[in-house]
Amino acid sequence: EAATYPYPVLMTMKATESGLVYNMTKAMVELFDDYKDGAPGNNGWDLKRQIFAWAIPMHEGAVSYYKERGVWTAQHQAHNEALIKRQDVLAVAWQAYTAKAPADDGEFAKGWMKARGEALSKSGLDVVLETW
Question: What does pTM read for this prediction?
Answer without folding.
Answer: 0.83
